[in-house]
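Dear Dr. H.,

I hope your travels went smoothly. While you were away I took the liberty of generating a structure for the chain from your last submission, since the lab meeting agenda had it listed for discussion. I wanted you to have the full record in hand beforehand rather than looking at slides cold. The sequence, exactly as received, is reproduced here:
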Amino acid sequence: MKNRLLLFLVLASMSTIAFSQSDTTWNKGGKIAVNFTQVSFSNWAAGGENSFGGNGLLNLFANYKEGKKIWDSNFDLAYGLVKIGEQTMRKSDDKIDFLTKYGYEIAEKLYFSTNFNFKTQFSDGYNYPNDSVILSTFFSPAYVQLGVGIDYKPTDYFSLSFLPFTGKLTIVLDQTLADSGAYGVDRGEHYRFELGAAVIAMFQKEIMKNIEFKSKLQLFSNYLENTENVDVDWDSMLSLKVNKYISSFIGVTLMYDDDINIVDENGFAGPRTQWKQTFGVGFAMDF
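The corresponding predicted structure, in token form, is as follows:
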């Protein structure tokens, strides 16, 4: 609980800094969406199980520009639950992702840049159907990445950052997960530090009327160990707006981390490509 309170205070402070300015050089806004799904059967010959669920999304952004200086910040939250038949309620989505970068123009559309990224999740994740084995929890894992390099920003909706001096800290506070060496930390340790190079590409644009595409691709290579193994974190979402308050979205996340071992159905543990796909229709509002 103390860790959750600390994170809330840190994020609240960041939001206050980013959103309390009144200078006209700030471009600020966000999106909130709440989606529900429900399926019910009665004497249905083809079979099936009753289910219901829902998820919520929140995106906040604040972009500042004055002379040669730019400061762009993006904050994403997502959480979802689903219940199928007699099963207990299960988590279907969980994300806390904050990215901010500050740049100083050194040539046209080219900036000397510092990037900071923080990622974790809200609640416990389990090895279903076994709900006694925790695979993740708050700050287990959490990722903190700080990099310095060059940012190319030809338009307001696209940027490409190359950060040859990047530190990445993996945090696993849960003792059981730390003892098992989860997420690449040494057994019993709570932290793993890597020094390497990162590439971050971001795109957000209304590609057609009422259709917005948002994508963030992050690549990281560790100078200290297995440099050829590149970590991949790609998150994309296509939003389709029906009217002022109703919209739908399709989200895809791809991840690969050579330090994360996943056990398959045959009991083999090793790094694997991770996929997550989400879809929802419901209430949405831009502000």
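Two observations you may find useful: The longest strand covers residues 90-107. Residues 128 and 150 are 43 Å apart (CA to CA).

With kind regards,
E. W.
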